[in-house]
Amino acid sequence: MSTYVIILKGKNVAKELLHNLREAQTPILNCDLVEPLNNKSEHENSNLDTSEEVFENQSSFNNIKLLNPALARKDRQKTLATWLIPFGFIAGLSFSQMTDLKTFSDMGFPNQLEKLLGGLVGMISGALGSFFSAGGINQETVDDLRAIRKKSEEGFWLVILELPIEIEPPWAILNETNSLEIITIGKG
After folding, report:
1. Number of Cβ atoms within 10 Å of the Cβ of 11
2. What is the pLDDT of residues 27-47, one digit of tens each?
3. C-alpha to C-alpha distance for 112 and 104, rounded to whole angstroms
């Protein structure tokens, strides 16, 4: 999927943009409206009719995984732990079985627990691996996020638009709106 962050001056402009995209039958996978970090436009919110809400999600900046690396890292860590912890247990158990080392019995543990303790050490290794391997982030993405955060702090609304990767964004519609900037976050 292709993800675009569109920086707009107000919520009404964002609603109009989404309405125009739907009229053009643009295939949208997800569309989130992100309110400004420094919400100077509260008076704009009170004048809106809430009977027809066009956005699937309206969130704050820090609750969006795409904009908050800490949330994305926790999600990656959980996904990795799902695979690495059981794999580490099986690998530790297998290693203890194959090598027939007496590491834990030399420390005073019963000989029957040798293989199980080897599996537990492997499980701990899997947990540590998931923790450390989930921490990386692309520097280009960090720079983009810094620019997006700055715009949000200045009081601008963000529309996060996710389109299928094979679909070219409707540039004519995007250019018609009073968007300040359009940032492409990721493809695929």
Report:
1. 20
2. 888 788 888 877 654 444 444
3. 10
DSSP conformation class of 75: H
pTM over cut 0.85? no
Side-by-side strand order, sheet with 57-59: 57-59, 30-34, 157-163, 2-8, 179-187
Dump pLDDT digits (tens) for 66-104.
777 778 888 889 999 999 999 999 999 999 889 988 888
CA torsion, ordered 154, 159, 165, 170, to nearest 10 deg: -100
Asked if 64 contacts 32 with a C-beta cutoff of 8 angstroms, the reply is yes
Tokens 């492997």, residue? 122
Amino acid at 82: T
Q: Which of 29, 32, 40, 2 lies closest to 14 in space, CA to CA?
A: 32
